[in-house]
Amino acid sequence: MEQQIVKVKNKRGVRVIPGFGLSLGVTLAMLGPLVLIPLASLFLKAGSLSFPEFWKVVSAPQILSGYGVSLSCAFLAAVVNAVFGMILAWVFVRYEFPGKRLMDGLIELPFALPTAVAGISLTYLYSDQGWIGRWFAKIGVQIAYTRIGITIAMVFVGIPFVVRAVQPVLEKLDRQYEEAATMLGAGRITIFFRVIFPELFPAFLAGFGLAFARGIGEYGSVVFIAGNIPYKTQIAPLLIMTKLEQYKYEDATAIALVLLILSFLLMLGIHSVQIYMQRFSEG
Q: What sign results for the dihedral spanned by CA atoms 33, 275, 75, 130?
């Protein structure tokens, strides 16, 4: 008896998932209240300001300083996370050692730990009287209440993104290509940068972008160690909270909208690079 294959078609061809309309409806019903409506309300609230008023708010010297602190520290933290996140993912995949599962689980601790707890802990450790900060204070290096401390806090909350993005791709990577390159006389550095890293690059870039975006909008773990010194260590999310406490909701929305656009452009750029790299590798 021949097996009959029933294909449900629409105008574009065969539907891969049965019940596509229902599935899409449920997805949009969940996505709307959680993501789309809040983002739309952000644009509507900021739209209550005229363009000159909006520009006056987002271009104020203190606000620009907050953007500069958040962006510069978030970028530096993302670079650190990208390098050390790659190393950690490599160690977890390619080596066996005692306590490996425990360390692998601890990587996700920043996801579970309340950000305020992380901020207080980091401030205590890196202050001039802290366990770590006191040693740097002896050589004249202050960590807490400086951009160094802000960067460390952003590294703490961003490191899991790179590790968890690279690790599964590295686990599935076929080692036959490495063996072939070894047989052809390639060294370890050449194998890594010419064979392994091109395969990891899209995931590596995605982890970098997520860590960068998380750092831009991070508040709880940064606000304590930052010290909130105007024009020096004030971050943009803190300025949003300050505007809210002053009942200046339109101003807070305008600042938040700029951060949203920056994060969106960042992720869009990274996604475009990933698509280009995929097409380049396939071509």
A: positive
Give the residue among 226, 48, 59 at the shortest CA–CA distance from 127.
226
What does 138-174 look like in DSSP terms, one character per residue? HTT---TTSHHHHHHHHHHHHHHHHHHHHHHHHHH--
- Model-level pTM? 0.84
> How many residues belong to the chain?
283
pLDDT tens across the length of the chain (283 residues): 444 444 445 455 555 555 667 777 888 888 888 877 877 877 787 778 888 888 999 999 999 999 999 999 999 999 999 999 999 999 999 999 898 889 988 898 888 888 888 889 999 999 988 899 999 998 989 999 999 999 999 999 999 999 999 999 999 888 888 888 888 888 888 888 888 888 898 899 999 999 999 999 888 889 999 988 889 999 999 999 999 899 888 899 999 999 988 888 888 888 888 787 777 766 5
Residue 191 DSSP symbol: H
Assigned token pair, 175? 């080692």
If one counts every other C-beta atom within 10 angstroms of the C-beta of residue 109, the result is 12
